[in-house]
Amino acid sequence: METSDKTFQILDALERQEISNQRQLAEHAGVSLGQVNYILKSLLEKGLVKIGNFRRNPSKIGYMYILTPKGIQTKSRLAVKFVMRKLEEYESLRDRLAQRLALMEQMGHGRIAFVGPQIIKDFVNAVIRDHGLNMVLDGYYKEWAGLKSAVRGSFDIVLLFDGSSEGVTKISETTRIPKEKLIPLW
User: Fold this and answer.
1) Other residues' Cβ atoms within 10 Å of the Cβ of residue 177
2) Fold for domain 3-88?
3) What is the Cα–Cα distance from 45 to 43, expressed in whole angstroms?
4) Residues with Cβ within 8 Å of residue 154, at least 6 apart in sequence
5) pLDDT digits (tens, 9 = 90+) for 39-60
6) Whole-number Å distance between alpha carbons of 112 and 134
7) Model-level pTM?
8) CA–CA gap between residue 179 and residue 168 (Å, rounded)
9) Level-2 CATH architecture, domain 107-184
10) What integer pLDDT is reported at residue 152 of this predicted model?
11) 78-107 pLDDT, tens digit each
12) What CA–CA distance (Å, rounded) separates 128 from 112?
């Protein structure tokens, strides 16, 4: 994760006031507690965050990080960069998947059974549709164990979302589907 992504995650959490301490902030942003401390100090020095204190109990003083107007503007700029970077990653992933599926299509595979999360199946389906590939997902299984009940001949290949070489061997032995028909998505 880039520094600007970490900073964005921290500023976003602070603005929404979902976080009550640095440890929670570190978990939310996916960084170490030391990095959170370093980033917060930097944000304080730049005037993006200020520390406010409040009293919930007369005998106890609490502290809270508050975004300044400059901090809100910076968070907005970082949000735009963050979203653009994620969209670029998404498009790159779509292109890589389209190339992989087109290669499978060229090899004569048109009917695919898919094993993996529903959201990834939907993504694969969208890439097939959007790129006009002559393929169809004929079967969907959340987990490979469902392949045991698959109708033989209803698919050319099985696309495995999470398929290491050891996993392919085990799936083949258990389901009696030939290894050459079990293709890891990546």
Assistant:
1) 21
2) Arc Repressor Mutant, subunit A (1.10.10)
3) 5
4) 111, 113, 138, 139
5) 999 999 999 998 876 555 455 4
6) 11
7) 0.71
8) 6
9) 3-Layer(aba) Sandwich (3.40)
10) 77
11) 999 999 999 999 999 999 999 999 999 999
12) 11
